[in-house]
Design brief:
By secondary structure, the chain is of the alpha/beta class. It is 27% helix and 26% strand. It is globular, with a radius of gyration of 17 Å.
Length: 203
Amino acid sequence: MRITLIDAGKRFNRDWIFRHLHYEFIQGHTYAITGPNGSGKSTLLQVIGGAIGISEGKTLYQEPVTAVEQVFRHISIAAPYLELIEEMTVTEFLQFHQSFKPLLPSCTIKDILSRVGLESAAHKQIRYYSSGMRQRARLAQAIFSDTPVILLDEPCTNLDSEGIALYRQLIKDYCTGRMVIVSSNDTQEYDFCENVLSIGDYK
């Protein structure tokens, strides 16, 4: 999988979030998007994922997908602003998710919940989860989806030190050979990334 931004720019009303961005993201490599709060990191991440259209330039998706309408099948995302289905248990939530985006073939839902420390809450409605438990569920959904691209927006939000250690281990154990893009200004979330893109360079 390869994602290429060509002279890409995004603006809201008259304010440019970024502009004249040329960048290529290649599967098997890791990337960090950095910048201060409110600088547009999340916007750029959503542009890369095809959730938000750009105002100028082009976004190209190559091998195995070329049409932006099909991008979602090849990309998974975890972000603190993405809502979970609170009426479901996390087991039901992952079963529902699996019905339209397969999970890694080597992992059952029971295995996944054990891996992220949610096995004791497997049959509890998500509405009763703490913020840290919810973030673990988001990470499970993204990292254990069988997709070549993983987008992570401030992935350690609401995680304690144990949760942060878990996140880093999940990256090590399950993300080799995939494209991982982390949007963050916290080095412990992205210090494993080979490439760093500062959004401030494209203002």
